[in-house]
Write a structure and sequence with these properties.
With about 200 residues, the chain is an alpha/beta fold. The protein has nine helices and seven strands; from the N terminus they run H-E-H-H-E-E-H-E-E-H-H-E-H-E-H-H.
């Protein structure tokens, strides 16, 4: 789950990769049965009781979702299995998203009586209001084929080939210079259109 330590590590790793001249592209992937279970609900109870900690976590989460778009290098998400809430938003913040055949997006915040502050802005960059309401209000899973049809992902690939395909896509997208990519990404992000 995405707790403070993991979110901080993701932000630090993306910033370090952007600053490293030998890194041409980044692939964000996960080991295990799914990409991300979303926010750490156990940590949420602590944040509710501490307003300063809640504000700090909000800033850290915002930094995580902004980091891929600020990089002058392509960032590819290679997602599989459960890809939930804030983890789904992280995937959608990437420039390109490959989903395995077993992908299951879900936004269950409403079921937990949580206002989806990270989820709504990201989903509204990708979907129309009725589709956003559908997936957020119901919390229903969005499987790989539907995610592709909704353009939440760029393509569906076999689970066994996910990382290899993501690396090949990242290499292909990295053929341009970082200054050019940074400008391209800035225009895309400023337009409000999903990366």
């Amino acid at each position: 789950a995405l707790n403070n330590a993991l979110v901080g590590a993701i932000v630090a790793a993306l910033r370090a990769a952007d600053a490293e001249p030998d890194v041409a592209a980044v692939v964000i992937a996960a080991a295990g049965p799914g990409f991300s279970a979303g926010a750490d609900l156990g940590e949420r109870a602590i944040l509710i009781a501490d307003p300063e900690a809640r504000v700090a976590r909000g800033a850290l989460s915002d930094a995580m979702l902004a980091a891929p778009g600020l990089m002058g290098k392509p960032v590819v998400a290679a997602i599989h299995g459960a890809t939930v809430g804030a983890g789904a938003s992280l995937a959608l913040s990437c420039d390109l998203v490959l989903g395995a055949e077993d992908l299951r997006f879900a936004w269950p915040e409403a079921k937990h009586d949580i206002y989806p502050s990270l989820v709504l802005p990201m989903l509204l960059r990708h979907l129309g209001p009725k589709d956003v309401f559908d997936v957020v209000a119901t919390g229903r899973p969005v499987l790989a084929a539907e995610a592709l049809a909704l353009r939440l992902i760029n393509r569906v690939v076999p689970r066994a080939a996910l990382l290899e395909e993501a690396c090949a896509l990242a290499e292909s997208a990295a053929q341009y210079g970082t200054d050019s990519l940074r400008r391209i990404k800035a225009v895309i992000n400023a337009s409000g259109v999903a990366p």
